[in-house]
Design a protein that fits this description.
2 copies of one chain form a homodimer. Chain A has 134 residues and is of the alpha+beta class. Chain A has 5 helices and 6 strands; from the N terminus they run αβααββββαβα. The N and C termini of chain A lie far apart (61 Å). Chains A and B meet through α4 and β6 of A and α4 and β6 of B.
Chain lengths: 134, 134
Amino acid sequence: MSETVKRNTKQKSAVRHALSEAVGFVSAQQLFLVLKNHGSSTSLATVYRALNDLVSSGEADSLQSADGEYLFRNCGKGHHHHLICRECGQTVEIEAEKVESWADQVATSHGFASPTHTIDIFGTCGPCQKPVAT
Amino acid sequence: MSETVKRNTKQKSAVRHALSEAVGFVSAQQLFLVLKNHGSSTSLATVYRALNDLVSSGEADSLQSADGEYLFRNCGKGHHHHLICRECGQTVEIEAEKVESWADQVATSHGFASPTHTIDIFGTCGPCQKPVAT
DNA sequence: ATTCTTATTGACAATCATTATCAGTAAGGC
DNA sequence: GCCTTACTGATAATGATTGTCAATAAGAAT
């Protein structure tokens, strides 16, 4: 087995921190810009690499936006789902035990093994529902 | 309002037909190849255009694969969700009234308006669970 | 602290799905 | 058949993500 030992680098920490500061889900490109504006010289490729590491280590969550972009979010907790404002990206974590088990049942009752699922709810949050002041 | 009158073209019919023949979800690229192999000269761009038309007219369903590709499926019926084999792409349509209402409740209880949701279940279907014969 | 190994980085090229452009073609109403 | 213009095909453009590879720097050992 190739068990490469991970190292702690400034860049990875910077990405981790930027992600923890972000509200809701953010794209790798957005994080890259944030870091840049804060004076970090972390490269875009490294942002992608760091985010992938964070996701695979369970420190971050990812999902795809409606136009196919990957979005990330700081998320140490266990499995859960999200309610996302389609305007501002604000995110609410939701529990869905019933739905979880429902999904597993549906899968197994159809003979499908090792089920996983994608469940996300989108809506317009309170503040974003207010008419835009011209 | 610009209400451009849609026309029926051979190409669009070809895409519609190819989609109706397809098993499970297929990508635009796959459909393009199928059409090509069947002698159709329909261009890739047109396949994309036709698919988008079909989706917006409710004749087709779309979702994103794990690697960000858009997948399409012939689907005239109302709102429903899918159980998809991650090996062969076979699809089972599932009803989820409970989950639908659950999703709406969650959204409104958090002050989110006009909720929509993404719910898909992935698994390995019976046939694909069999060990591969060498 | 210095040395050494190699994981990680940065810069940039390469991919790849999807979309835009635009001149030519062909539905479908007359 | 004629005319308007939606649609198509070919191809360039876009844009997010990944691969390449020499240079750099973590972290263990000395």
